[in-house]
């Protein structure tokens, strides 16, 4: 079968109406093309997004607001809690503190403060310790590595 002008049809995906816009005053959709006169909706690109908004949507990265500190958050543990949770000569480090749930599982840094009393010796490893905590731990017979 040969293709000729009378056998041509529209493609399936086309949904536009048959009226051709802006083809003269006699076409019923001439001059303004059915958009009315002035205003935002009469102009091309009226429904378009702003460039920054579109870029944000395409990249799907939210705009950061406020301040985010570069320093990691330091979890704080008092000596009184260590006295309750750990027995004599126990090793206290970040892993054991997470296991006892004294610090959050996401914590990366720990500081031991000197609030409370300690009755027995413990060994602290890999933690920052305040001066008062150092005094109380060494007085009880413990050590800091």
Structural class: alpha/beta
Strand order of the largest sheet: 1-3-5
Helix content: 10-25%
Radius of gyration: 37 Å
**Binned strand content:** 5-15%
CATH architecture of the domain at 74-144: Ribosomal Protein L15, Chain: K, domain 2
The biggest beta sheet, please? 3 strands, parallel
pLDDT < 50 stretches: none
Output the number of helix runs.
Answer: 4
Under CATH, the topology of the domain at 74-144 can be stated as Ribosomal Protein L15, Chain: K, domain 2
Q: How many E strands?
A: 6
Report the average pLDDT across residues. 84
Shape: rod-shaped
Query: What's the level 1 CATH class of the domain at 74-144?
Result: Alpha Beta
Query: Could you tell me how far the N terminus lies from the C terminus, measured between alpha carbons in angstroms?
Result: 91 Å
State the order of secondary-structure elements, H for helix, E for strand.
HEHEHEEEHE
Structure description:
The protein has 145 residues and is of the alpha/beta class. It has a domain at 74-144: Ribosomal Protein L15, Chain: K, domain 2. 21% of the residues lie in helices and 14% in strands. The chain is built from 4 helices and 6 strands. The longest helix is centred in the middle third of the chain and has 9 residues, at 51-59. The model has no long low-confidence stretch (mean pLDDT 84).
Task: State the main characteristics.
145 residues, alpha/beta, three-stranded parallel β-sheet, 4 helices, Ribosomal Protein L15, Chain: K, domain 2, rod-shaped
């Amino acid at each position: 079968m040969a293709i000729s002008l009378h056998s041509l049809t529209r493609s399936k995906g086309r949904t536009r109406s048959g009226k051709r816009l802006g083809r003269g005053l006699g076409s019923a959709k001439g001059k303004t093309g059915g958009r009315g006169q002035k205003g935002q909706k009469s102009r091309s690109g009226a429904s378009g997004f702003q460039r920054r908004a579109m870029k944000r949507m395409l990249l799907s990265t939210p705009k950061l607001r406020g301040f985010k500190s570069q320093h990691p958050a330091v979890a704080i543990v008092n000596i009184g809690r260590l006295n309750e949770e750990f027995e004599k000569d126990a090793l206290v480090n970040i892993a054991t503190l997470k296991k006892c749930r004294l610090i959050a599982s996401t914590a990366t840094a720990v500081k031991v403060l000197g609030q409370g009393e300690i009755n027995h010796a413990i060994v602290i490893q890999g933690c920052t310790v305040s001066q008062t905590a150092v005094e109380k731990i060494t007085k009880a017979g413990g050590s800091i590595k």
